[in-house]
Design a protein that fits this description.
The complex is a heterodimer of chains A (about 675) and B (about 200). With about 675 residues, chain A is α/β, with parallel strands linked by helices. Chain A is built from 18 helices and 14 strands. In chain A, strand 12, helix 15 and strand 13 form a beta-alpha-beta unit. The longest helix of chain A is centred in the last third of the chain and has 63 residues. With about 200 residues, chain B is mainly α. In chain B, the strands form two sheets. Chain B has a three-stranded antiparallel beta sheet with strand order 1-5-4. Chain B has a three-stranded antiparallel beta sheet with strand order 3-2-6. In chain B, strand 4 and strand 5 form a beta hairpin. Classes of the chains: A alpha/beta (about 675), B mainly alpha (about 200). Chains A and B meet through helix 8 and helix 11 of A and helix 3 of B.
Chain lengths: ~675, ~200
Amino acid sequence: MSDRPQLHYPRIMSVTLENFSLYSLRRKIEVIFTDGVFCLIGANGLGKSTFLASVNFALTGILADPRKTYSTPAELNRNRPDFADEFFRGRIKESDRDKAQISLIVQISDKEFHITRGVFESKSLRNFSAYTVSDKRLEFNGGEFSPEDLHKEYEKRFASASGIKYFEQFVFLQYFVLTFDESRKLLFWNDRALKEAVSYCIGADFEKAQKMSRLQSEMDKAGSLARNFGFQASNVRERLALLKSFEEVDETDSGTESIEAQHEELERAYQERLSVVEQKKKELADAELAWIEYSSKFSTLQADYASEFERRTKRVAHVEYHPTVAASLSQHKCSICGSESSEAIENIHQKLEASVCPLCESAIAGNDASEDKTLANLRSLDESLATTRQKLDQALKTRARLQKELLAADDSLEMVARGLREFETKNERQLLKITGVRSGLENLALNLQAEIDEITRQKDEKYAERDRKKDEYLKLQKELHQTYLHVQEEFVPRFRQLAYLFIGVDLDIRVEFRTSVSNPGINFTLIVKGNERYNDFQLSESQRFFLDIALRMALVEFSSASSGKGTLLIDTPEGSLDIAYESRVGQMFSAFVGTGHRIIMTANINSSQILKRLARELGRTQMHLHTMTEWTELSEVQLAEQSLFQEALSELDKAFSLSDAAQ
Amino acid sequence: MTYNHLAYFDGLQIGQHVINSVGSVASAEIHMLAYLSCLLSLYRQQPVSLWGYQFAVTRENYPFASDLQAGIDTLCSSGYLATAEGYYSITGRGQAELEALQSLNVYQERRAFIDGACSCLITLPISAIRRALENDPDIQPATAISQSRLLFSESGVQTLYDHFSALSDAIDVHTDDLTIPAVVWVAFLAQLSEK
């Protein structure tokens, strides 16, 4: 005996729909389910699918949006508030909005849950109570709980009773394994959903299953980013290659060689002229500096000369030449007092000869020596001035010459520069090819290469991250694989059996665990008459549908505890099976309910060989028909076809009778 | 007092020339001869700033330089110039002083200009020179309206250059003897006064 999970699936005991405007004839519809198959029969548009959807909504608080694809519990859980509101809005009148509700009685393990949910209330319950199955003892009454807290309590108790760790994982199982509805989301060819479902149903650690789910997302994300980086790097490489194409030189092109030679010559001439200009500028700067130096020196000497001259002029001397004294002597009359006495004049002469001032009688210093000295000083300064002046004149002449020469050199340079520019403009393309690295080309190439290196580094990082996560994933998958290997000896034969009942030919299912870096996971390969059918289009639509149902049945059977028999909800696909297959479907369904599980299904009575086969197989004790004609008003067309409806019911009665007779 | 040795020298040099010609001159005539010397330097295309002191025309209608006057006063008080009744003449001491200064290079260039200006005294009476200078194109606009004005302004110099350009067409501007251009210029100005 291998390790098998021991899940307790919900066994739906009854459903009560209140104030559903869609079911116009009944404000309250109560359906009680018994063992076997419950089949809701009605024409198209009467609300069969709505019935099943309402049961699921009441049970989970979620309605899956058929327009979206879900693969994990988290994705399904995100859908919580939105689609249910949209779905029921068209089916419940505004006036019934607050009154419409669904009540369920569900047995799970040894618990019986009574819940009531408002049709537009996905996160709250109007009523929740829990009992024990055996003695109907009340275990929980949510009278004092808020509606939201009631819901939380319900989720907690439900998960605990089911043996599934998290309520959202149960929701996933309810939609992907326990419900086959009009959205026709197939489990077999939804790789990720299949992995999730298989991991739950074959007894894998739920937390590991969650972790695998998370790792898968992270791997995908890292891989996607790495591919993006790779794409970016390719783009930049293309740009770099284009840039480098400019560097190719066609050496056999003589025109290019001639242009290159001319360009070199022009550049050389330009450089030569530039050197001359630079040299002239330097020489001119030196000449100007010399001129400034000599000017400064000349000025200084001039100032020194003036000072010396002033000193010479100011010297106290020549008292006898002072106008007053000179006038006195020449006029023989004192210029101060007017005395004309010869004694007065003689007095002046004597004082002068004694080197005494005639006016104040102060001693007069001898000036000859100092005069000689100042004159010598003046001569010395004068010579310096003359020398400096010569140098200054020379510097001025040099400066003037160099200014002219610089002007000429500038003109020459400008002429050559103009010629060079014109030449380069005319031959730009060829020159770019020759030089390849003119202006910023080389730098641009370096920048592009640096960009490529950085992007490549990031790409490698992401691939490394993906690989790390893949290793972790594969480790978990290996554990899952080990678990699966242990249990497949029971699961696979049962699936083969159920599928054979439908398809009627030998088939097998091979499970492969993919370890590829880009897409690790689980592959279920169907082998029909020895041929692998890897893709869904390799089977007909109806074959796909019912094989998927067979897979779900096998999973449920395998994973349920003996006291955990559940209820499979099937919105029967019709119109796409031929009669032979419809009959075999009936055998398959019969085999499933024979294990103790239940089916709640919908059917359009007119075409269904499924129902006849079921009726014959199960009889009235195991199959219950419920017509919707009492729930809602028929259209004129439907009313017109009532006779056909009655005819079909008669056929089913006959089938039941045959079954009763056989038993 | 600030001593301008160039003006000091000019006073002596002019005094020397005067004593050889008219014996003594009035202060205004010394200024006038100095102005004419400066004109000759301009004629020789030397910047007027190199002359070393500035001239103005006063309401007395003759060119005057403060620095020159200060130099004259200094020369007088040093006994190098003798003054009598407003007329100046160089003394023996002054001649000795001049001789000492003439050996210095700093005065060589201006000596030629002063010599050229003072050579007019040989051919023309000083009064005639004085009258002619009243028609100087830089002086006349101011004297015409009895206005004092600095001489050798930018526009004044340009006007003089324009006149000198015509003068140099007739005379070789590079001739060493400045007597000719001096005399021609004064004669030209004299003609203007006759008109």
